[in-house]
């Protein structure tokens, strides 16, 4: 893995979708009036005959995608996560999930990465999509995983929900990293804490693990790009080897990754204390910047360090995360 500050890559999803469409003429791209904002202006320019502008009518867009899938096509549906899931949920259930069709819902601006207030913040999208039979739910962490996950999507027989940060995406992994959809990834080793995370919280978790290692705390980071179906075996082994468990997600702590890990712990009968870092059953406010929100709602690197430190019962102040000056095009979590 690279060290922070991370270099970034612009529009990795949009370029990966174009590359997939060059190999498969059954790939169809749908936009919910957020074409440039979801990186698919690249697809529209390259394949205008396979691009559908569905407008701000997400329920209709989902129904169209279901019909296209019934005709043997591979519809990729794009809008912000909150509009991809919460608004057209009934259509997703009846036109996609129940008939188990290969529709790919791509939801951008997950969690509080959108500063637009509750109407634009998908803090419950993983929870509601996890609850649907037949759906695969994915939350990848960097530009390399985004490039790798797109061709994977076309091989999954049923529907998929993929949540993505948009725009300039950090490059965390080296090029030899291979995204697995059937396995969680153990990225660091340590027997004090099992830190289970994914998506935008991976970079903060890696930073927290480095700082905690300097204070003598061993952290085993379990990166879980696929929340459903969850690789329960890997999560269980990590939990068994740790004193305490912490989950970190850019989502409500109710129903998301933390809940999935809690289910593994409970069903396996493991006696491990669990702490969930995420949105604590509250809506976020609107803001001019997303980093402010990550700080305010306890999703920062320092909040993770403080949580692990307290969870282990250490006395005294927790170690402080190092911050670096960022150049243009570099990324470091808050």
Automatic annotation (TrEMBL):
Keywords: Thiamine pyrophosphate. The keyword DNA repair does not apply. InterPro entries: PDH/Transketolase (IPR051157), THDP-binding (IPR029061), Transketo_C/PFOR_II (IPR009014), Transketolase-like_Pyr-bd (IPR005475), Transketolase_C (IPR033248). The keyword Nucleotide-binding does not apply. Gene3D superfamilies: 3.40.50.920, 3.40.50.970. It holds the Pfam family Transket_pyr. Residues 7-171 form the Transketolase-like pyrimidine-binding domain. Its cofactor is thiamine diphosphate. One of its GO terms (molecular function) is magnesium ion binding. PANTHER family: PYRUVATE DEHYDROGENASE E1 COMPONENT (PTHR43825), TRANSKETOLASE-LIKE PYRIMIDINE-BINDING DOMAIN-CONTAINING PROTEIN (PTHR43825:SF1). Belongs to the transketolase family. This is Transketolase family protein. It comes from Microbacterium sp. LWS13-1.2.
